[in-house]
Here is the input.
Amino acid sequence: MEERVQRLTELANELRVDILAMLVKSQSGHPGGSLSVIDVMTALYFEIAKIKKGDPNWVDRDRVVLSKGHVTPALFSVFAKLEFIEKKELMTFRQLNSRLQGHPDKKCPGVEVATGSLGHGLSMANGMALGLKMDGKPNRVFAILGDGEIQEGQVWEAAMAAAHYKLDNLIAVVDHNRLQIDGWVESVMTVSPVDEKFRAFGWEVLTIDGHDMNQILEAFEYALTIKNRPTVIVAHTVKGKGVSFMENQAKYHGTAPKMDEFKKALEEWNITDFDFSIFE
Amino acid sequence: MKKATRQAYGEALEKLGHKNSNVVVLDADLSGSTKTAIFKKSFPERFFNMGIAEANMVDTAAGFSQVGKIPFASTFSMFGAGRAFEQVRQSMAYQKANVKLVTTHGGISVGEDGGSHQSIEDVAIMRTIPNMTVIVPADATETEKVINAIAEYVGPVYVRCSRMDTEILFDENYHFEIGKGNLLKDGDDVTIIANGLMVEEALKAQQMLSEKKISAAVINMACIKPIDKELIVKYAKKTGAIVTAEEHSYIGGLYGAVSEVVSKEYPVRMDYVAMEDQFGKSGKPEELMRYFNLTAEAIVKKAEALYSSKK
Here is the structure.
């Protein structure tokens, strides 16, 4: 296995522990989608996007818009690793006066735009991509969407505009974990075929296994070479990925794990040295 | 001389384009009507037509603001404040984005297009959102000054302009400041607080009242949020009676904003000239203003009644 693939895979798994730890502490939040998207986010933040550790406001950075804003546990675990925030701050998630709000808020360093209400992120990413292009900046804008989220009509307004303005500095990812709060996406409101829809709107479309680090990196790297049109990576993922009893369970969209569930997950991951004093 | 505030907006925006290269303009297929086409003609590379998709337009503007641009987004008031309400709330106000949503065709003076296009609730909707600044300029001169002021101010702003040609009331020396009202006429018996098209009517009403030996003060409250509390309280104390006048529902607009100050700080008798709780309809703008009692005569009637009730 390529060195970086192994390194990023291990890092994503390390972040999975942080995600669950945050949620155990807050007893409120969204584990399922955080676990499905963390492999993609790890590749993006630690390998693909121009991001500088410890400097969230670096002027030459690429921009990442987390449009599926409910997966703040994934985002903040990444931010702690990037030293945008201190790791112990993760334990303040969703608490009164924390910078780590339930959904991304600009109070937290590293959050480019406030999201959470679904359907807004791609439009804002478009505006950023247009502005950067106008200024002749080489930077990219990445937008991460959920598959339930694309039921929002505004996503398609934005998809139309991104192609119209030939935003080849924009790369979107759809975290296609097939579940939303009320159940299977396809039974709540059919979104398939996702790839054909984007293709019809004028996008370059790549379809990958969103848990295969090799495929994730290849897709991003290929997307960076596309000219004259935006690219979307449809990442097929598993909601709750990595924890056997959470996988493919709609319940864990917005239900935080209890301590005993966390301990069970640690057991599955063969982690014996977890420092429980962080919860104190 | 007459000029619509939307025309003044388009012209001011074009002038601003020369002064500030960070200004970008977005429109939703109404650039000929909102007059952003004037900017587009001079700066095509900084103009973005977003098609008939107002929600996407407002959020795209918010995106522009995150990379150092000063976006002005325009459409009709109905669509800007109505269709895109949640985009204004989440992407403009919640994150204090430096976006200027300047809408035109506010109120019933839209005319023939009818009630579907006549926004009578936009000011109320925008005013309830934290962090927002809300402005309804009275004439072409004030509109230009508003546009310059909001370009300097860093933060989310909603401005409502009108379609109809209206009298130019102020000269170049007129001063507009965010958060400040302007006393146009001083008086002792009753205060008329107006904005938008109703300022012209308020000035006419002041004349008519003076012929009846009632001394009315007239305040132009173009900036409804943040509102000039000090000026309102001063005139509540001085005259003991306030009539508000606006081309908007009486619920939640200027009457609401002034009432909130008066009821808490210095309660006095108040009344309004505004749309009752109903939609507009098709007709000529001037006809509609009379039909819905948005006239100087209506202000006089309310002011006289308040004045007599004081005695």
